[in-house]
Specification:
Structural class: alpha/beta
CATH superfamily of the largest domain: NAD(P)-binding Rossmann-like Domain
Bound molecules: NADP nicotinamide-adenine-dinucleotide phosphate
Shape: globular
Order of helices and strands: EHEHEHEHEHEEEHEHHHHHH
Number of strands: 9
CATH topology of the largest domain: Rossmann fold
Strand order of the largest sheet: 3-2-1-4-5-6
Radius of gyration: 21 Å
Strand content: 5-15%
Largest sheet: 6 strands, parallel
Helix content: 40-55%
Distance between the termini: 35 Å
Length: 312
């Protein structure tokens, strides 16, 4: 792929934790932005962002941060995006693109569209890449490589909007991602299955184990390699981020949770009645799904898991 050059003279990132700092690092490394301005609400995070030299300018004031930006990416927890966008609304440059990286799209998109003044382009986004770490030290430039980024623009017949979508797609491709355009509600249903429900199960199973009085905490740690350890990794994900995801994607999560509960009941019946064939048939089918994921090159959730991430 030929280098696209500078796509946005000034990029502003609002919320510079794992994802925001990875965008900053990757955008810098791939030379697709001129200047990077970073806004973060946390004084401790700002100190780290300065020390890591992630931006050309760092501030805690969102309106000051977005002034003159050609692309603004909100990378805060999802329920914080609306307030931040509203606080900055008077300062957006006409013609700039507003996007985000939130794990829920319909609610965040609505908040961005409501906050956006006329003349700016709202194109919500979600890179399907991450780890259970958080904070600016945890990010890395390669996070998006070979991962999907989903963009959920609205269907608006405007050549300037189409050009803004194409430019944002080129930005994510330059960061190594593959780009897909999707309807925001469909995104939320797909992610409820592939990400939100698995996290809910992990939070629940780790909570259940922690509450079991007959099994000691020491035994839970000692024998965790039997499957539990993978759940504890997922259940270590940021509590604020995940609280916001479940609140913001309530409808889709409840829909999928209903289906899941029915299937769990069926499994429970199969175990109770010793229906070995039924269990074997399901476990064979699920193994095929795992093989399909590996074949699609998406088997590793965190491509560089294990590298030195600092103290966050
Ligand atoms: P993170 O590491 O916790 O970073 C979020 C940062 O935003 C924190 O420094 C936080 O400061 C700051 N912040 C909160 N409210 C703010 C505001 N109003 N203005 C400016 N800064 C604010 O979170 P993350 O893991 O990067 O996640 C960020 C977004 O990416 C979320 O919407 C999440 O759904 C999405 N996402 C995450 C992953 C993942 O695997 N982590 C993957 C894909 C997408 P405080 O600490 O003071 O709150």
């Amino acid at each position: 792929m030929s280098h696209p050059g500078i796509l946005y003279p000034r990029l502003t990132i609002v919320g510079c934790g794992l994802i925001g700092s990875s965008v900053a690092r990757a955008a810098r490394e791939h030379g697709v932005v001129g200047e990077i301005v970073i806004c973060d609400a946390s004084a401790a995070a700002r100190e780290r962002i300065e020390a890591l030299k992630l931006g050309d300018r760092v501030t805690g004031d969102v309106a000051d941060a977005v002034e003159g930006a050609d692309l603004v990416i909100f990378a805060t927890p999802v329920l914080a995006v609306g307030d931040a966008a509203r606080a900055a609304a008077h300062a957006f440059k006409p013609g700039c693109t507003l996007s985000d990286v939130g794990s829920v799209k319909a609610a965040v998109s609505e908040a961005l569209w409501l906050a956006a003044p006329a003349g700016v382009f709202v194109i919500p986004g979600h890179p399907i890449a991450g780890t259970e770490q958080s904070g600016p030290d945890a990010g890395f430039a390669e996070l998006f490589e070979n991962r999907w980024t989903i963009l959920t623009p609205r269907e608006i017949d405007d050549p300037a909007y189409a050009e803004a979508i194409a430019r944002l797609g080129a930005f994510w491709r330059a960061l190594g991602a593959q780009v897909e355009i999707m309807d925001e509600k469909h995104h939320d249903l797909v992610l409820a299955v592939t990400s939100h429900l698995p996290h809910l199960i992990a939070y629940n199973i780790v909570g259940t184990a922690a509450d079991l009085e007959e099994v000691t905490q020491a035994e839970v740690m000692k024998y965790s390699a039997g499957g539990f350890r993978d759940f504890t990794r997922i259940a270590a994900s940021d509590p604020t981020m995940w609280r916001d995801i479940f609140i913001a994607n309530k409808d889709a999560v409840l829909e999928i949770l209903g289906r899941f509960t029915e299937d769990l009941q069926a499994l429970s019946r199969a175990i109770r009645w010793g229906e070995a064939d039924k269990l074997h048939e399901l476990f064979t089918r699920t193994r095929e799904i795992r093989r399909g994921i590996i074949a699609a090159g998406q088997e590793s959730v965190e491509p560089n898991f294990g590298r030195d991430r600092g103290k966050h």
